[in-house]
From TrEMBL:
Keyword tags: ATP-binding, Nucleotide-binding
SUPFAM superfamilies given in the database record: P-loop containing nucleoside triphosphate hydrolases
InterPro entries cross-referenced by the UniProt entry: AAA+_ATPase, ABC_transporter-like_ATP-bd, P-loop_NTPase
PANTHER family according to UniProt: ABC TRANSPORTER, ATP-BINDING PROTEIN, SKFA PEPTIDE EXPORT ATP-BINDING PROTEIN SKFE
Ranges for domain ABC transporter: 2-225
Organism: Cytobacillus solani
Protein name as catalogued: Spermidine/putrescine ABC transporter ATP-binding protein
Signal peptide range in chain numbering: none
Gene3D superfamilies membership: P-loop containing nucleotide triphosphate hydrolases
SMART domains linked to this entry: AAA
Listed PROSITE patterns: ABC_TRANSPORTER_2
């Protein structure tokens, strides 16, 4: 579904990714784990067609990423910059006008689940509620690729668990490839099929989560501590 072939990304003198190759399959949920600045967001942005690699080829559904294929990718950015005068419901209408795969009924259901008032102005939303709105906008799309960059930032720990459970009902386990970059490993662990460890722009390890648990007896956190120990 998603193929990285020898991808490097340079930002001027700085390196974002270095010769990264992998294949992500349909129907799986992947976690990208790594320290700050390791290349997680760069990876997601390349899949979403927002950043162009300096070297290598990226295929999404067998096609080299272009504007058409990028429109089939739902991407939740780590940034939350919204057009301030909009109300929540204006944002829903805007997304519906931009993406053919945006399902308004689903968005309204998600707004209720996230306890967001459609009539509230975006500038009046707390950071946590902006985070919830970002999730609504990404999950209301019926796409084959769903990319979530730090989807729980700003959400208080008390609600994260219930939001993760809610997430489950909006993921199409058969057909979607979901990639989540996060530091909130505890919350996300029950969702993940595979984890990729990224460090200094390289994938340094890759594990199947069930295998990690059953054959090595490790949780993702334990594996992560071993993988990233200096
Ligand atoms: N627009 C940019 N201009 C210059 N350097 C950049 C830019 N975006 C990313 N980088 C650099 O590329 C590297 C990878 O950044 P990236 O944002 O992909 O990391 P990350 O793993 O998502 O980090 P974080 O966990 O802090 O979000 C870092 O060294 C970063 O400073």
């Amino acid at each position: 579904m998603i193929e990285f072939k020898n991808i490097s990304k340079k930002y001027g003198r700085y390196s974002g990714l270095e010769d990264v190759s992998f294949t992500l399959e349909k129907g799986k949920i992947y976690g990208l784990i790594g320290p700050n600045g390791s290349g997680k967001s760069t990876t997601l942005k390349i899949i979403a067609g927002l950043v162009h690699p300096s070297k290598g080829t990226v295929l999404v559904k067998g096609t080299e990423v272009n504007r058409r294929i990028a429109k089939e990718v739902a991407y939740l950015s780590e940034l939350d910059i919204f057009y301030q005068p909009f109300k929540v419901k204006d944002m829903i209408d805007f997304y519906a006008s931009q993406f053919e795969d945006f399902r308004i009924e689903r968005a309204n259901e998600l707004l209720t689940f996230m306890k967001l008032d459609p009539d509230k102005k975006l500038k009046q939303l707390s950071k946590g509620n902006r985070g919830r709105l970002k999730l609504v906008l990404a999950l209301a799309r019926e796409t084959s690729v769903l990319l979530l960059d730090e989807p729980f930032s700003g959400l208080d720990p008390m609600v994260r668990d219930s939001i993760v459970k809610g997430l489950l009902s909006y993921i199409d386990f058969e057909n979607q490839t979901v990639v989540i970059a996060t530091h909130e490993i505890d919350e996300i662990e029950p969702l993940l099929d595979e984890v990729l460890a990224i460090k200094d722009g390289k994938v340094i390890d890759w594990q199947n989560v069930e295998n990690l648990r059953e054959t090595k007896g490790l949780s993702i956190i334990q594996w992560m501590k071993e993988t990233f120990k200096e």
